[in-house]
Amino acid sequence: MSSQAPKLVDDILKSHPGSQRDHLIPILQEVQEKIGYLSEDAVVRIGRHMRIPASKIYGVATFYNQFRFTPKGRFHIMLCRGTACHVKGSAKTLESLTKALRIEPGQTTRDGLFSVEVVACLGACALAPAITVNGEFFPRLSQAKLAKLLDDCRQKAGAAPAAAAGQEQTTPRSPRPRRRAKA
Q1: Is 70 inside a domain boundary?
Q2: Is the dihedral of CA 102, 108, 113, 114 positive or negative?
Q3: Which residues pair with 119 in a beta bridge?
Q4: Residue closest to 10 by CA, chosen among 35, 52, 23
Q5: Which domain holds residue 103?
Q6: What is the pTM of this model?
Q7: Same domain, 126 and 166
Q8: How far apart are CA 32 and CA 88, in angstroms?
Q9: pLDDT value of residue 154
Q10: Among the four residues 65, 75, 76, 108, which has the most C-beta atoms within 10 Å?
């Protein structure tokens, strides 16, 4: 979390005085929008402000796919696994992507360049298989197009292409609290 993040979280919380539980999701959304993810510190601050245990906040946040607990990479890749993309080979695209970056969906490379997210549908079925990088669509993605796209991203970032730099290193996925089964 950046040095400015605690202040940003506190400013958000100040704009929600006396917040009740029904304000939790909008506050989580606002915090994530400002700092990019829900850090442990942010969750604790929200809990103190709302007088809700951090475990309850994690329980709510982990229920929804929209919340992240690790920062996104500079190039956030969303891979579609909808029916059309699946039929057109998105499983192979995902395999190539995870092999090239040496990360799994939900992870960020150690250098912070790439993060990968699998989504149910990007709404571009006629262009399958498709991914987005920072919201820009890349349709009818072949393995060769994917390799070039990753190298182009590295070049934009001033990093060496994969062939020259070796494989990416991974940042361990931030552990998500597990829900306990009710007895």
Answers
A1: no
A2: positive
A3: 80
A4: 35
A5: 75-171
A6: 0.72
A7: yes
A8: 33
A9: 95
A10: 108
Residue 87 falls inside a structural domain: yes
For residues 64 and 28, give the distance between their C-alpha atoms in angstroms, rounded to a whole number.
Answer: 11
The position carrying tokens 């100040």 is: 14
Question: Is 182 contained in some domain?
Answer: no
Alpha carbon 92 to its chain centroid, in Å, reads 21
What pLDDT does 175 receive?
45
- Do 11 and 84 lie in a common domain? no
- List CB contacts of 87: < 8 A, sequence separation 6 or more: 128
What does the chain come to in residues? Answer: 183
Q: Is 88 helix (H, G, I), strand (E, B) or coil?
A: coil
Sign of CA dihedral 136, 140, 143, 145: negative
Q: Is the peptide bond before 17 cis (omega within 30 degrees of 0)?
A: no
- In this structure, the answer to whether residues 59 and 86 fall within a common structural domain is no
Quote the CA–CA distance of 13 and 152 in Å, as a whole number. 40
